[in-house]
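Fill in residues.
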């Protein structure tokens, strides 16, 4: 199970991949906490996206959070931890003294959506650089990388449970198809439906085929 620990000014970022290639990420404020555990979803690299945006190596990013991060205590904790991890430390020896890109964090569908944009020097417009990823919060712990659980996401569904629900849905559709096929065979075996004598009430003979008294039906009155 590959694991990587990244150190920042006020916290740590732990990346871990399990045997089913599920990427887990932990953000932690050291040494006293709190820390958050995420499931990383929908990762798209810069090489894969091939966006037109670009930024200089070592430049500082602006951090942009939507207003949803100020609407609940849980979201405020997320905002603070993300700020500590992704913000460039002051006077960092490997950082450049200018800003040319923006990290945006959006809280939507109980997940955190990350985007990286270049700030165009001429117009100030935003041009996406990449990468993209989604953080699905699992739990918030009181301590650093552990401790009491102070928040648990009620909307979180484990990948194994999601796969199981997809398999059950596929099995249900397969069962419905088999039952429909069996019912069709049963109806064919029973033969055609009995005829209804009322079906012939409104059937008339064409004039050219009328014979005997049937011709009186088509004779015009003078």
């Amino acid at each position: 199970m590959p694991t990587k620990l990244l150190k920042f000014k006020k916290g740590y970022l732990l990346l871990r991949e399990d045997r089913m290639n599920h990427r887990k990420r932990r953000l932690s404020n050291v040494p006293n906490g709190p820390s958050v555990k995420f499931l990383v979803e929908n990762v798209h690299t810069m090489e894969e996206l091939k966006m037109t945006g670009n930024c200089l190596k070592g430049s500082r990013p602006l951090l942009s959070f939507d207003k949803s991060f100020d609407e609940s205590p849980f979201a405020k904790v997320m905002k603070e931890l993300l700020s500590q991890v992704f913000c460039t430390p002051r006077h960092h020896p490997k950082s450049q003294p200018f800003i040319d890109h923006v990290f945006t964090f959006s809280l939507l569908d109980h997940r955190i959506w990350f985007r990286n944009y270049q700030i165009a020097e001429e117009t100030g417009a935003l041009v996406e650089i990449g990468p993209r990823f989604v953080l699905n919060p699992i739990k918030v712990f009181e301590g650093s990388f552990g401790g009491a659980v102070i928040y648990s996401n009620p909307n979180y569904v484990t990948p194994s449970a999601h796969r199981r629900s997809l398999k059950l849905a596929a099995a249900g559709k397969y069962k419905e198809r088999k039952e429909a096929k069996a019912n069709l065979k049963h109806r064919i075996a029973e033969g055609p439906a009995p005829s209804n004598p009322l079906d012939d009430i409104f059937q008339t003979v064409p004039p050219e085929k009328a014979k005997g008294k049937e011709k009186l039906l088509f004779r015009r009155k003078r």
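The chain has three helices and ten strands.
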